[in-house]
Amino acid sequence: MEHRLLSPSNVVKHVRAAISTTVFILEVLPMLPSRPIDWLTKTPRVERVRYPSLSGEIEGDLYLPGGDGPHAGIVVCLGVVPFGVDHPQVPRLGRALARSGFAALLYWSPAMRDLRLDPDDSHGIAQAFRWLVDQPFIDEARSGLLGTCVGGSFALMAAAESTIRDRVAFVVAWAPYSSMRTLARDIASATTASDGSTTPWQVDQLTRKVYVRSLTSTLEPVEAEQIRTLCANRDAHNAPEEMSPDGRAVFPLLTALDRSEAIHFVDQLPSALLARLDEMSPLTHITGLRAPLVILAHDRDDTVIPIGESHHLVAALTGREGIRYTEFKMFKHLDPTKVKLPPVALCRELAKFVGSVYPIFENTTRPANR
After folding, report:
1. What is the pTM of this model?
2. What is the pLDDT of residues 27-47, one digit of tens each?
3. Which architecture, in CATH terms, is 8-179+283-364?
């Protein structure tokens, strides 16, 4: 039996990738000691930059490694964030990426900050990526996208856009949804389907608020606000006396339905609204995805996006090379501080987390001869 030995340059590359992974893990997880990393690595620089968007130039934070470039670039879309952009975990992620070798541009969506989804965001993320990789200090061949929650879904859609799909080296989606149609059915019925079975799902209040605001975003402002007020929770029964055709179509999906009713009312939406849902669905765009590395991860007990959504994505990507999928028990929708595990279980989950992010650094670490 032949044994293939790694060349010295590849050994160095894997060692570098392991070091970068360790730096990232220690810096990004608040329960782990990061001070030694701060001593041993160069302090990242944070620059306020302006980059193009669909609505003109906007400002964003660019976290840069302390050393010389060219650096691997990464555009990060944090999705719908209920806390402020200055929350401690936001710069923690930026610093962790920069200390581990990435130039990280944090993309903030005006629509997502308004707690709603807009199909234009995938174009906006693609435009931000083009700007970043065109900078002289960025190595395009090692650059990609990272998104969390709905930001992960939009990162997948952006990576499939014709303007950048051949330039994206990797895309990472943590806790994404696969389809707005299936997500709408789950939210409307408070159930979720996975592995052939349907189970009750206690819908997170943030998920419901984003869902309600997104489904009503194309209505006239007065009607939209009226329906949003009536349907703040699933107990709404009496529809407004006067509603537009789209308002009448959307309203039942904002009330308490069983699963068969939810499926029916989603399918009965006007064609323009269904097309809008599909435009915001990664499954609709998946055939355009060409990134050689796609990393998906989800928490098994996620209450914001049900894990079945990632299962749908994995099934759609089956047979493709470069797909990595990991399930965790250590996160409460991407927040490790909300889950308390026994030491042995925590170590097991940390090992899984290391294994899930290592391919990013393996894929983007420069060879030893560069």
Report:
1. 0.92
2. 887 766 666 777 777 888 999
3. 3-Layer(aba) Sandwich (3.40)
